[in-house]
Design brief:
heterodimer; A: alpha/beta; eight-stranded mixed β-sheet; 13 helices; globular; B: mainly alpha; two-stranded antiparallel ribbon; 73% helix; 3% strand
């Protein structure tokens, strides 16, 4: 056959189309992947093991709702041991094995988020939520792909201080773990207290685990603080501090931030050591899972949990830590769906833009009302109080927006 | 050692890479490291770079524990000092207006020197105590250094508990701003460090270290100054760790105090014990095991069991148990480390069919 120009063009076009088709097909994966690092071993294994079931629930729920524009999503989780370098290795392993199919990632710590932030460039970047509420992360100019599924620790201090002011309080003590987590909101807290006319009478750093309780309680007693805000603890130290203060006969009102507000821990402490946590308060960005009124999303969780987690503590109660993870996942999924609706590729840049465009959005009951992503965070929360007889945290303030 | 290698000349006997197995390994690794930046994916590069940094540190630990016989559990402190020296020295040089392209050439030796000086201070107790007592004394160095780094008074330079962003290495205009480029530098430095330390033990100084390890009183009677050589051993060891720390700082975009805590010191010693103390291949085998086995376990368990969180919640502790068991088995069946196992294998190959090893 004689090959003229027209035949050559037709042949090469057909060949290109045939050879190029698989590449096009590769660009549309059969499933998307949502990677995650969790502290399933190590110092925060309790939290990691409680959060882990959320991913199974999220995968089922999201895929039943049509995944992302009809494409299902699969969650891939790996243990970090709460070591930032391990979590970074997990992230890069997931990038290498899942490639473009991985469209979002969930990190396990502030340390990891800071370590990975400079690596999120070009095709190495993914939309990234985490367990962290570190103030430094809520900065889209520096960390465009990282977001917070709630208020920063600084915002949480703001809410608590405003609540103290509303109650007519005039002195406060800050007791915090000597970690990045513990120190995060201190400077802001001092400035804010000064603005509100509240005197910070004590700043006391403790060890994150195994703190010297009598010494810290004595210092608290000497300070004469009406209120004490505890920051930077998860399962330990904060209950012992409160217990120690009550044994000492201190009337100080204790308050905590998100990670010190878990009902499971408060219930366990009450069962093992007595009702001294009665009246303990703190800021919570989300509603508790038993607050089902006008919360269709929570009602769905409750129905699925009853089936998926039958016979476990999660059957009737979703821990706040799990709620935070679910919220972070749902925010990412919302951004991914918004991007897919615009027919844009699910790159970190496109999804981050969609995420920052979330405005006046109804999350189905996580928060007090519709939310807006402002500086890649959601600056809302309210104060809850624990009652040992009911074993419930109940709201004592309206929703604050900061 | 591997026997059965014919050396017909003094020159052959003096060669550092003196048999074909070593040649194959060393040249093979050199070729592999040279090709990796072009061929490997980012994850492989990350793991390889982590191995390179750790290798340099473990080579340093080997000098003081393996060759000089002084047990130290505080070497993460030297890594921390090396790492934190980098942003501090870059900041100081920036104030002086030095061009960025020459900063690493001053900052890396600076970090090594500062670590070596700290090594001399930490090594002082070795003149009075040894064994477990020395281990406890050096252990305190780790806590003290981390405490000092986290102090609020020095946080403008160290970032305190919040950590500090680190600069990229800029070698005369070549900015090593990707992990791939940094790997090339790490691999080169790892080769240089291993060769330098291997060579050290062919000198009077290295032999003095070994004499101290075998029996320090006898060494002193032979005229070896314990004060000088023990401190020198600590200084060289700390210098290697300082170099590892400096590369760590350039490799990661941010350093946090929690990355240099006791767990790292223990990991360095564990790598040395598993690999084999007092042998140049010990750190290499040890680091390969300590870094790659957990990764391989994660990968293989993930392949078999899947990546879902429910499964991960069970397999994560299981991986830790399997890794711990592997280490125990190594120590039970070959306390002299993997180097000894490999040596035995090569001896058997050399002597075959006349003997089995």
């Amino acid at each position: 056959m004689k090959l003229n120009r027209r035949a050559f063009l037709a042949t090469t076009t057909a060949a290109s189309a045939t050879l190029g088709a698989p590449a096009l097909l590769r660009a549309q994966p059969t499933e998307y992947v949502f990677g995650a690092s969790l502290p399933l071993t190590g110092p925060f294994a309790t939290a990691g093991q409680l959060v882990a079931p959320a991913f199974g629930l999220a995968q089922r729920l999201i895929n039943e709702e049509g995944g992302i524009a009809g494409t299902p999503i699969r969650f891939v989780t790996e243990d970090s041991g709460y070591i930032p370098a391990n979590a970074l290795a997990n992230y890069q392993r997931a990038l290498a094995t899942e490639g473009d199919a991985m469209v979002a990632y969930f990190g396990d710590s502030t340390g990891f988020m800071k370590l990975v932030a400079p690596e999120l460039i070009g095709d190495q970047a993914r939309l990234m939520g985490s367990t962290s509420f570190a103030s430094e992360l809520a900065n889209p100019e520096v960390n465009p792909y990282q977001y917070l599924a709630g208020p920063t620790y600084e915002d949480q201090f703001d809410i608590l201080l405003r609540n103290i002011k509303d109650e007519g309080g005039s002195t406060v003590a800050f007791i915090f773990s000597n970690t990045e987590f513990g120190r995060d909101p201190l400077e802001h807290g001092k400035r804010r207290a000064d603005e509100l006319g509240i005197e910070v009478v004590l700043e006391e750093a403790t060890r994150a685990q195994g703190a010297d309780i009598p010494t810290h309680v004595t210092k608290l007693a000497q300070s004469g603080a009406e209120y004490c805000i505890l920051q930077g603890y998860v399962t330990g130290v904060w209950p012992q501090l409160i217990g120690g203060a009550r044994q000492f006969g201190l009337p100080t009102k204790f308050m905590g931030t998100f990670w010190g507000m878990e009902k499971i821990i408060a219930d366990r402490v009450t069962a093992e050591a007595g009702p001294f946590l009665d009246g303990y308060r703190g800021v919570m960005p989300y509603r508790y899972s038993y607050d089902l009124e006008n919360a269709p999303r929570y009602q769905t969780f409750a129905a699925i949990s009853k089936e998926m987690f039958a016979g476990t503590p999660l059957e009737h109660y979703m821990p706040t830590w799990t709620i935070q993870t679910m919220c972070a996942i749902e925010l990412a999924i919302t951004a991914l769906r918004m991007t897919a609706e615009k027919d844009l590729p699910l790159t970190a840049e496109n999804t981050a833009e969609s995420l920052s465009g979330i405005s006046d959005f109804d999350m189905g009951g996580y928060f007090g009302g519709p939310i807006t992503m402002d500086n890649n965070k959601i600056g809302t929360g309210r104060v809850y109080q624990y009652a040992t007889d009911s074993g419930l945290f109940t709201p004592t303030s309206d929703w604050f927006t900061v | 050692m591997i026997n059965g290698n014919l050396k017909a000349t003094y020159a052959a006997d003096e060669r550092m890479v003196d048999n074909r197995y070593k040649q194959f390994f060393v040249y093979g690794m050199a070729v592999l490291c040279a090709l990796m930046p072009f061929a490997a994916n980012n994850y492989i590069i990350l793991v390889a770079a982590q191995m390179g940094i750790m290798l340099i540190a473990v080579v340093g630990v080997n000098v003081v524990i393996g060759y000089t016989g002084l047990l130290s559990l505080g070497h993460a402190a030297f890594l921390a000092i090396g790492a934190y020296s980098i942003p501090i020295l870059h900041g100081a040089m920036g104030t002086l207006g030095l061009p960025e392209g020459i900063m690493p050439f001053l900052a890396i030796p600076g970090a090594v020197l500062i670590s070596a000086l700290l090594g001399i201070i930490v090594g002082l107790p070795s003149l009075r105590v040894k064994g477990l007592y020395l281990a406890v004394a050096t252990l305190s160095a780790n806590f003290i250094v981390i405490f000092l780094i986290e102090l609020k008074a020095v946080s403008p330079w160290t970032g305190g508990v919040q950590g500090i962003n680190t600069p990229d290495a800029n070698l005369l205009g070549w900015e090593l701003d990707t992990q791939r480029e940094m790997f090339a530098l790490i691999a080169a430095m790892a080769f240089v460090t291993i060769l330098a330390v291997q060579n050290l033990f062919r000198t009077r100084v290295g032999r003095a270290f070994i004499a101290i390890r075998e029996r320090d009183y006898s060494a002193e009677i032979l005229g070896i100054s314990l004060l000088r050589y023990k401190l020198m051993s600590f200084a060289i060891s700390a210098a290697c760790c300082g170099l590892a720390g400096a590369l760590f700082a350039y490799f990661y975009a941010r350093i946090l105090p929690e990355q240099f805590e006791l767990a790292l010191s223990l990991q360095l010693v564990a790598a040395l014990i598993v690999g084999g103390m007092g042998r140049i291949m010990g750190p290499i085998f040890g680091v390969i095991i300590i870094v790659t086995v957990p990764e391989a376990l994660k990968f293989s368990f993930g392949m078999v069991a899947g990546g879902s969180a429910d499964v991960a919640a069970f397999r994560a502790p299981l991986q830790e148990i399997v890794f711990g068991l592997l280490i125990i088995l190594f120590l039970m069946f070959e306390p002299l480390g993997i180097t000894q196992i490999v040596d035995r294998g090569f001896r058997a190959i050399n002597r075959w069919p006349f003997a089995r090893g």
